């Protein structure tokens, strides 16, 4: 028996999935939210049941203690030492980490140093790391970086055309994000293609946050997020790519400070900003169906921004064997997939299988045999990648 827990610690939340690695099954999963508030919420799923408790959880330390106590109380584990490894999702690994790493002093130092690039995430990941380290000191810990899969980008794709010294002196470059998802989905897509020696795959990770990547022979060659997740396609609340002059103009015109404007671009833009209704794709779609013009415009912009990257990556890859859709919108919205594919079908020779797109479930092909590019839906599974890397690097 070798149990591994995959952990995603945010500033006020902690998501977890406990795996039995012998058969890669999920034993239990859940989330602790609103840490630090009086009404923190602990949700745990086990044996097909969902248990939700509201109680004050002041810090991540108490969150981890509550989680581990619950595992014992519910007899999910008999002894905490059954958990041999803790895999931590780390948003920003900078240029230091090309792959996952066993967490030691060096890794902690670098995650800490990189907090300048991920101020909301990296400090929270370290808090989660320390909380588990204290609670289950015998378990090994592994860091799985969201940026690692994008470390194969070449300088011509990750250097911004601004003075080079900003890269040299301040590490300004494209890092990308969602790498664990892009890795999982592109690998599954290669499997679905029958593991050919050469493959050209475009992954469209369309969730609340969204990014596309171009993957050639298993290596990521480009991705749409940039120095931070603010770049690339339009998202739920993020603008995506934007002329930087807009920033100066609005800061001056509205007389607000830069941080406030960046907050607006991160939290009040995208689907929410244009529609004025919601950041949630389903809400915006519903409003558009009811005739709301701004909601329709928001969706139109969203689709066009996605196809702009599909077009770029088709060219960058020199063609494409498969497009894979994943994450909340990519996995669940037949409508979004259909709209996006319709906009590129003529140029790329894609023939969608409407029945598979609309009525199928889970991982599947949604293009017809005559389609020049195969199109798949591939539900992402970042936790499984985290658990697998943890097992592998700890030799469990
Ligand atoms: P994240 O992990 O980035 O928080 P998700 O991958 O969970 O986000 O994606 C959330 C998005 O997926 C929301 O915009 C939501 O509306 C959308 N979504 C989820 N289910 C559906 C569905 N059945 N149809 C359309 N959109 C959906």
Rounded Rg: 21 Å
Given the structure, what is the number of helices? 15
Spatial order of the strands forming the largest sheet: 5-4-3-2-1-6-8-7
Q: Sheet bearing the most strands, described?
A: 8 strands, mixed
Given the helix and strand composition, which structural class is it?
A: alpha/beta
Assembly context of the chains: single chain
Morphology call:
globular
Small molecules (ligands, ions, cofactors) in the structure: adenosine-5'-diphosphate
Question: Low-confidence spans: pLDDT under 50, at least 5 residues?
Answer: none
Overall helicity: 40-55%
Q: How far do the termini sit from each other?
A: 9 Å
Work out the strand percent.
15-25%
- The succession of helices and strands, N to C, reads EEEEEHEEHHEHHHEEEHHHHHEHHHEEH
**Number of DSSP strand runs:** 14
Task: Describe the overall structure.
The chain has 396 residues and is an alpha/beta fold. Helix content is 41%, strand content 21%. The strands form two sheets. An eight-stranded mixed sheet has the order 5-4-3-2-1-6-8-7, sandwiched between helices. Strand 1 (3-9) and strand 2 form a beta hairpin. Helix 10 crosses helix 11 (293-317). 44% of the residues are buried. The model has no long low-confidence stretch (mean pLDDT 96). Residues 207-209, 236, 280-282, 327-329, 332-333 line the site of adenosine-5'-diphosphate.
